Structures
1.
Amino acid sequence: MKKKVSAKKEITIDDLAIMVQGGFAGQDKRFDVLENRFDVLEKRVDGLDRSMFEVKLKLDSIDDRMKNIENILGPLVMVVDAMKTSFKNHEMRIAKLERQLQNK
């Protein structure tokens, strides 16, 4: 394909300034769009930060409650173990007494 050769128009400084200004105006619009998108993204990230902070507070609360439960249950477990041993001893003594009674 052959290009048509057009008559060359002489570009003045004013023409060049208008073209540059038009280019910058187009870039300004693009940057405004990007800036708006970043603002939206920043708000979403801030919301996520708040949500994560709330989750951390809840997890800390749960952790504290679990430690309290462990502190309460620790001694109870030892008491139950001691009672289990005592109960087994009583069962063995009762079984022995019952055998003695059956043999009489």
Note: The chain has a mean pLDDT of 88.
2.
Amino acid sequence: MSTADVPPIATLELDCLERWSVFRRLKELSIPCQCSCGHPLEVKINTVATAIQVWSVTQQCLSPRSTLVARLERCWHGKVSYGRDD
């Protein structure tokens, strides 16, 4: 197996509670990941769709509720913004 065949692994540095919440949700989505006490969460990113799902899950755990509500309202009204400061 060449290095081109090995999927990239994203290392997510999260606090303990966020790490386990993200880990559980990624497992529910059947995204390959591993997490052990005192170590960062490691996620295999096989596709663009997986990368988007990982981003979405981490945003749900890390973003303030007001940001999530504002994003949802913009989507509902068709005003999508892709920046971090949306």
Note: The radius of gyration is 15 Å.
3.
Amino acid sequence: MVEVLTLLRIIKVTIVILGVLIVYLSGKAFLRNGSRSMLFLAIGFVLITIGSVLAGVLFEFLGYTLLEVVTIEASVMLAGFVSIIYSIYGTKS
């Protein structure tokens, strides 16, 4: 069980690192050309990354159950994916 938990922590840290990189690049693209689609893309990846971080904090430090953590993480990630879809189909820039 300890090995699985360690693997999960490594995966979560990798998700955060990649999420921060994607947010940085899409934020930089938004600042460069002012495209609303890049703004909503960045917001979407911020939410997805926050969902992953939040899940880890809630489980590791605040004692939430696994079901509660997964439900909260999935809800925040859903909002992130909605923002990404909006960035692709809903903006006129």
Note: The chain has one domain: 2-89.
4.
Amino acid sequence: MTFRRVQRDRTMNLFKGFSLCFFCLIAIVIGSSPEVGSDKWLEDMKEKPKGDWTASEASDYVKHCIIR
């Protein structure tokens, strides 16, 4: 094997490792957030200052909690 091939293989292995870690982290973050409209989500929204809500969160709150 040439030096360039060994270097390329190491780079690819590093890239694969980082990619796997990144996707696992994303899966954990997505899996840990409560479903919109659930009781847990409603609790979280009540505790969160209304100034920190996004437009999407405010819209979801109205859809799922006020207009039930």
Note: The chain is about 75% helix and 0% strand.
